[in-house]
């Protein structure tokens, strides 16, 4: 497959795949992971066209399915560590980490000559990366990785899948956002010979990028003590429809295996749901994310309750002088609601409260990105209560960050008092999850260290 035509030879569009046809493609994809008598099936869904349903009663905590990634690549997010091998995901040295064959991808020595890397390497070479060192010239030592070209790698890998695997990709939903086309245009500008005039190829590339941006997950992977985020396409996991407090939870085993279990009891015939957002985000934050990235508005019971089962994850402090009450959104069907104080009952416009929320978000995120664990604990305990209620989702995210860092890295370096603060944060978050009815969700298992 050395030509563009060969790359798309078996990529004929099949947008109207039935649930039965999709089920056959999923069976092939699962391979030896497909159970002889699975507790799930694919069927038409009133939520979003098709979904995953229980074939019998499924008990809380029960395994529903495991699934290998169909394709994996780097996230290439802003701020991500880019000098990680795109094949084996090991951490590369500070210099000399680009492929020896001048494709400009970060690849370790053994992987640069591997069968896994060969085809994608040849494509990048043919497209002539503008950052490539001229043949015969010596590297300057100041190697750069272009995240725009790196992100397109996952889509390129789809072209090298088998015919049935490519049919499965093409059968998946793809939102045709303008931003996705911009992603391709920016990637094309990283090459001197990108096939932008080849309409069949560009149409198929746009379709693949849409599938990835609509369905792919970010999953952590650890290699030799180094952790990186991968971008993986797990088709069956992606077919599950969204619910803000879902009845199933998923986690990823080292970036390449999705594991889905029941978070609550699921009755026979019930739709098995997951969440496309973070479960502790506020109503407004989840709503904006779903509208912008998934192109729908959720109408679940949680989204219609402005207290979110009494968790008050959206709550901010009242701006009325002398009042210490909590202010929450009044309406639940709009992205710009009015806000009302639960104590003085004053109503505030969304623009004012949005500025206040952005201040809290930026202040806390800046601390997360720049502070030690010890400084974060002091900030959460002493400074945050002055401008942010303890229930606000942004402050909850800060507490999760402390738990994660203390659990995941250098656990032995913390004092008994710092460990006590971490344990208190954990209990507070578990109480919120209980109010939400989250059951045995992945977040609960992560912070109680049931998942390492």
Automatic annotation (TrEMBL):
Record bears the keyword Lipoprotein: no
Biological processes, Gene Ontology terms: methylation
Keywords annotated in UniProt: Methyltransferase, S-adenosyl-L-methionine, Transferase
Domain SET: from-to ranges: 38-277
Record Pfam families: SET (PF00856)
GO MF, any single term: N-methyltransferase activity
Entry superkingdom: Eukaryota
Matching InterPro entries: SET_dom (IPR001214), SET_dom_sf (IPR046341), SET_SmydA-8 (IPR053010)
Listed name of the protein: SET domain-containing protein
Record organism: Drosophila willistoni
Gene: Dwil\GK16970
């Amino acid at each position: 497959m050395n030509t563009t035509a060969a790359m798309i030879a078996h990529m004929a569009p099949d947008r109207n795949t039935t649930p039965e046809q999709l089920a056959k493609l999923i069976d092939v994809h699962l391979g030896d992971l497909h159970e002889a008598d699975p507790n799930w099936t694919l069927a038409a869904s009133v939520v979003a066209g098709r979904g995953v349903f229980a074939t019998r009663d499924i008990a809380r905590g029960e395994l529903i399915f495991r699934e290998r990634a169909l394709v994996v690549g780097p996230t290439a997010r802003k701020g991500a560590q880019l000098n990680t091998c795109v094949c084996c995901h090991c951490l590369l040295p500070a210099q000399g980490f680009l492929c020896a064959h001048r494709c400009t991808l970060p690849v370790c020595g053994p992987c640069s000559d591997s069968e896994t890397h060969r085809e994608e390497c040849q494509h990048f070479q043919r497209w002539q990366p503008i950052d490539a060192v001229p043949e015969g010239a010596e590297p300057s030592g100041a190697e750069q990785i272009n995240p725009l070209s790196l992100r397109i790698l996952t889509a390129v890998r789809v072209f090298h899948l088998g015919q049935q695997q490519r049919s499965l990709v093409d059968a998946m939903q793809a939102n045709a956002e303008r931003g996705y086309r911009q992603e391709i245009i920016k990637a094309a500008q990283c090459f001197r010979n990108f096939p932008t005039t080849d309409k069949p190829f560009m149409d198929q590339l746009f379709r693949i990028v849409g599938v990835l941006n609509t369905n792919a997950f970010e999953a952590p992977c650890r290699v030799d003590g180094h952790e990186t985020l991968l971008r993986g396409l797990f088709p069956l996991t992606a077919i599950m429809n969204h619910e803000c407090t879902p009845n199933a939870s998923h986690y990823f085993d080292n970036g390449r295996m999705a594991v889905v279990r029941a978070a609550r009891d699921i009755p026979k015939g019930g739709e098995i749901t997951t969440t496309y957002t973070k479960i502790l985000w506020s109503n407004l934050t989840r709503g904006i994310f779903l509208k912008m990235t998934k192109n729908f508005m959720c109408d679940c019971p949680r989204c219609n309750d402005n207290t979110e089962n009494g968790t008050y994850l959206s709550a901010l402090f009242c701006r009325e002088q002398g009042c210490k009450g909590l202010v929450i959104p009044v309406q639940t069907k709009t992205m710009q609601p009015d806000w009302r104080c639960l104590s003085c009952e004053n109503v505030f416009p969304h623009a004012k409260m949005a500025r206040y929320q952005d201040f809290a978000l930026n202040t806390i995120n800046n601390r997360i990105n720049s502070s030690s664990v010890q400084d974060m604990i002091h900030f959460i305990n002493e400074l945050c209560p002055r401008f942010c209620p303890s229930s606000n989702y942004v402050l909850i995210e800060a507490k999760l960050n402390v738990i994660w860092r203390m659990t995941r890295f250098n656990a032995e370096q913390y004092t008994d008092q710092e460990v006590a603060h971490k344990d208190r944060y954990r209990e507070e978050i578990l109480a919120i999850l209980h109010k939400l009815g989250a059951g045995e969700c992945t977040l609960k298992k992560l912070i109680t260290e049931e998942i390492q």
